[in-house]
User: Which sequence fits this backbone?
């Protein structure tokens, strides 16, 4: 039985591979559109164009079947490096914003990975930590964000 | 050589049967698809009618496609089934917005859909490829009428703000010119003996012959203005009858203009396996499938049930939930087994006692941003003025495309376009806007392709999937690395709990992924339940 199962496993893996190869086609990958990063270093602008989609315009978060954490009056905001790590590497549903190696993966290519520079990440962290009822005085620098890359 | 040799001498049918036994029906289905067998093989329900152990029960979390396929088949097999659903309707992302519907997104913005009777958009899935046998099977089974979905329309537009002075070009002309010029180049290369080391003389003759046919080249192997090229790219004046019927050929674009335009990037969309003709859509909107399942399952589905905890022990699984219309009171639902189809974006926030492997898999996958905008216009100008009947125009603007309805052709009155289907950074930016601003942007960008927009616009609605209260995102955006590390752990049973949904499939974002993952999961559930039933 052992060898029979091994053949089956190989075969299934092969079938699965065929499916993997076909996955880039799953949406309208016309590929004409290629912008993957915002052209601003303003923390306020970055927040307004990206973060508030989920964390909401006043950092109040939202609750449905699940929730988006509020950034307003959230004690976690006391740690700028926690925020930087979350933005760089993602956390559960939250996507990662560290720049990815462009040659990394074909099957992800139909949605260009969105990324922020270390300057942009520092800037938006500093914005969040001084708005929405947060009053943290210690600003984070791009160099400190850079040090948190893998 | 022994057993392994014997294995290789098996017929493919024997191999398939064996895969079916060892790995469940969904693996078999996948293997069949890989061999091109699925088309000739009738779809089979995974469980035998009445095959459930006596008294066995299953709790299904989520009444989307995966949850309802699981509930439907498990009930058929004789299990006691109950389903908990967060929304007041069934279907999940299988969803159609029609006139009279109200949608409240996270953050509280309320939109009232003002479409005329019979007009709609599908905020989620909108196409059914002919080879998605599972979802098509349930359409047939549940009496959901299907009609053709037009993906490729040669008379739709390819548009770039940076090419041809921003003037949209017909797909037909771009395709013919791109193909014609490439064919001519290759023919010239062949005739100059530059392919001699690659292609034999005999095959070069055949190649030249095929290039003439493929590229609409003239007898000198040139792609030139004339009857041949116009028969592909369209005429300046179409042939007609009588004295005025003489056609006028059109002027092809130069190769350089076609290449510079980058519009060739829009040509292969319909060549992708998932987009190849024939595609289907349910008559009346994709949500008709979810409605049909809901009708079938009836009182099995508890609506407005927000799951807040999932606990299992050696005897069964209990979900704690809250009625969203009467919050503050905890209810529970229990069963021997649980098929959990909640999106990972939600599930990752719900306390659940599963092992580390599954917990880490649930936490490993972010959800994609995507936005769709539906626009109602006072008349079907795309048909009346542009002769576009169904299909999709593509653009380099954030809206990415405009999709024309594949139904109701030539009907007078109003019409609804899918005015935007947005991904990536653009989707994040659109999500961060108010619904009215999303609609406004879609109008501005779309009017670069259809100048009729401002005059004919009636009303619009915009769905940003990260603002969806019931999914917090569009679909599980697996990276290759996360899939290699976590996919199997996500799909494995953990005690009495198994997960299903598009996130537990290799067909991300497709309903077929939800169907096949549900069939795979309940096949394994049934094996376990039968084994447990035998020892009890």
Assistant:
């Amino acid at each position: 039985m052992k060898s029979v199962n091994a053949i089956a496993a190989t075969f299934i893996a092969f079938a699965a591979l065929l499916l993997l190869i076909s996955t880039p086609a799953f949406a309208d990958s016309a590929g004409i559109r290629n912008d993957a990063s915002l052209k601003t270093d303003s923390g306020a602008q970055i927040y307004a164009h990206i973060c508030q989609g989920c964390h909401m315009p006043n950092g109040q978060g939202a609750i449905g079947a699940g929730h988006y954490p509020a950034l307003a009056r959230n004690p976690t905001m006391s740690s700028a490096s926690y925020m930087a790590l979350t933005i760089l590497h993602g956390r559960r549903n939250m996507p990662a914003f560290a720049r990815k190696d462009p040659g990394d993966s074909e099957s992800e290519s139909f949605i260009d990975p969105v990324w922020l520079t270390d300057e942009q990440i520092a800037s938006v962290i500093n914005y969040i930590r001084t708005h929405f009822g947060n009053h943290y005085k210690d600003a984070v620098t791009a160099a400190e964000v850079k040090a948190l890359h893998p | 050589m022994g057993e392994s040799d014997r294995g290789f001498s098996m017929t493919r049918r024997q191999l398939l049967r064996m895969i079916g036994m060892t790995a469940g029906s969904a693996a078999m289905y996948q293997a069949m698809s890989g061999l091109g067998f699925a088309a000739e093989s009738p779809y089979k329900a995974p469980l035998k009618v009445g095959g459930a152990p006596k008294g066995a029960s299953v709790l299904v979390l989520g009444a989307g496609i995966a949850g309802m396929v699981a509930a439907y088949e498990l009930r058929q097999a004789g299990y006691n089934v109950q389903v908990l659903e967060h929304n007041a309707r069934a279907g999940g992302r299988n969803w159609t917005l029609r006139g009279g519907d109200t949608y409240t997104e996270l953050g509280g913005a309320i939109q009232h859909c003002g479409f005329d009777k019979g007009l709609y958009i599908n905020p989620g899935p909108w196409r059914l490829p002919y080879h998605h046998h599972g979802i098509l099977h349930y359409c047939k089974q549940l009496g959901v009428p299907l009609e053709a979905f037009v993906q490729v329309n040669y008379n739709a537009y390819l548009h770039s703000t940076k090419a041809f002075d921003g003037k949209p070009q017909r797909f037909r002309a771009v395709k013919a010119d791109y193909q014609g010029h490439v064919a001519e180049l290759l023919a010239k290369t062949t005739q100059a003996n530059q392919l001699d080391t690659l292609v034999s003389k005999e095959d070069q003759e055949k190649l030249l012959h095929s290039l003439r046919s493929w590229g609409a080249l003239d007898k000198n192997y040139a792609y030139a203005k004339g009857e041949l090229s116009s028969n592909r790219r369209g005429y300046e004046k179409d042939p007609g009858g009588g004295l005025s019927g003489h056609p006028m050929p059109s002027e092809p674009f130069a190769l350089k203009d076609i290449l510079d335009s980058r519009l060739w990037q829009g040509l292969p969309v319909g060549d992708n396996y998932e987009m190849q003709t024939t595609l289907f859509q349910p008559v009346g909107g994709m949500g008709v499938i979810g409605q049909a399942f809901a009708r079938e399952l009836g009182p099995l589905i508890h609506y407005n049930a927000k799951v807040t905890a999932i606990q299992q022990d050696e005897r069964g699984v209990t979900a704690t939930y809250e009625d969203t219309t009467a919050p503050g009171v905890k209810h529970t639902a229990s069963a021997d087994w649980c098929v959990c189809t909640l999106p990972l974006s939600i599930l990752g926030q719900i306390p659940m006692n599963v092992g580390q492997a599954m917990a880490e898999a649930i936490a490993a996958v972010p959800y994609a941003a995507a936005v769709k905008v539906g626009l109602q216009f006072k008349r079907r100008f795309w048909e009346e003025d542009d002769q576009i009947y169904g299909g999709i125009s593509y653009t380099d603007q954030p809206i990415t495309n405009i999709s024309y309805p594949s139904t109701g052709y030539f009907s007078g009155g109003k019409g609804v376009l899918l005015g935007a289907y947005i991904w990536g950074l653009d989707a994040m930016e659109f999500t961060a806007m108010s619904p009215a601003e999303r609609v406004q942007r879609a109008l501005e960008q779309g009017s670069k392709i259809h100048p009729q927009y401002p005059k004919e616009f009636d009303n619009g609605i915009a769905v940003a999937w990260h603002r969806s209260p019931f999914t917090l995102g569009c679909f599980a955006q697996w990276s290759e690395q996360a899939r290699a590390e976590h996919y199997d752990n996500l799909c494995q049973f953990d005690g009495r709990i198994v997960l299903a949904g598009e996130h537990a499939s290799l067909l991300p974002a497709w309903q077929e992924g939800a169907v096949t993952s549900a069939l795979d999961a309940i096949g394994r559930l049934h094996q376990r339940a039968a084994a447990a039933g035998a020892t009890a």
